[in-house]
Design goal:
This protein is mainly α and about 375 residues long. The protein folds into two domains: about 160 residues, Orthogonal Bundle (Cytochrome Bc1 Complex, Chain D, domain 2); about 150 residues, Orthogonal Bundle (Cytochrome Bc1 Complex, Chain D, domain 2), CATH 1.10.760.10. The chain contains 15 helices and two strands. The chain is globular, with a radius of gyration of 24 Å. The two termini are about 45 Å apart.
Amino acid sequence: MMRRGFSALSVSFLFLIGCNPEAPVDPAELDATPYVLAQGHFPNPVLSEDNPLTESGVALGRMLFHEKRLSGDNTQACADCHSQAQNFSDVSVFSTGIAGEEGTRHSMILSNLAWHVHHDGSHVHGFFWDGRAPTLRDQVLQPIQDELEMNASLEEAMAKLEAMSKYRDQFMRAFGTEEVTEERMAKALEQFLLTLISNQSRYDQWLLGEASLTLSEDRGRALFFDEFDPFNPELSGADCAHCHSGLDFSSHQFGNNGLDAEGEMLDIGLMGVSGSDADLGKFKVPSLRNVMESAPYMHDGRFTNIEDVLDHYDHGVQLSSTLDPMMQYNVDYGLGLTEEDQADLIAFLHTLTDPVFLSNPAFSSPH
């Protein structure tokens, strides 16, 4: 009886230990398991050789992206201005930082960033609306330090992470030691952001022969891709693909799309980074994937809906010395879009919505 009683107590004790969340766990160790990008029908991206994607690195980046402790007062994470449901952008015209102050631009969308590089791997296009960060790795740490955004020093952010066992363990898994450094934070965030791939819209299914478009959607597609012909306006397209080209619906270049006339520009865009007069009013061309979930629009969020955007390109383009040459037609002639044209273009833009991307649990908060 004593032996049986002892055995039962032992089993009970072991059971309790197994259920105790504070029970000792195996020490973390390096896990270099490769992360396979869900690139689907997209071409192979050119990725940095010094930061290979791993399951543990991506997991760490996801934790950091949703970590409010990276802000000065522990109230704001990257994800607060880049909401997944909003195409990793923001419903606000200007995102609000931890001090309650608004920024100066609308938050950019975050998707398909692995294809924002040149074919030779150089990051010639730059990140942010004005291209001030030459690489994604340079970009990710700037909002943490920006006084209008998360308003924290990298030193205090790293100290907070080092004080938490879950982060020490995850840095060990991702990089082989528990050391928290600026470079490691940037690499982990870069890895996670590179996994934010949107390529499962109905348009993608149509490209693969797995879905069909309605007559309105297909007519909108033709208008989108056909060039504008001022001499045959009734037969010409809206010429959207001039800037919004390729599988990501963006050239990833910088351009002046005629938002303001020469002397009315409150934001000089790329010129503020390059110092060149030729870059006045130029901003990075955003992707149109999930565009119907990304309002408001433009670098300053001035357009609240897609109809306002189409009206701008149809008859609202303003003349300036750096206006994209292809936009000159918009100034001189206007696109002459009918109500049907606009309705069909909007119908096509709806086919670029990727509900899988907007709800993928792999991108949501792990906390």
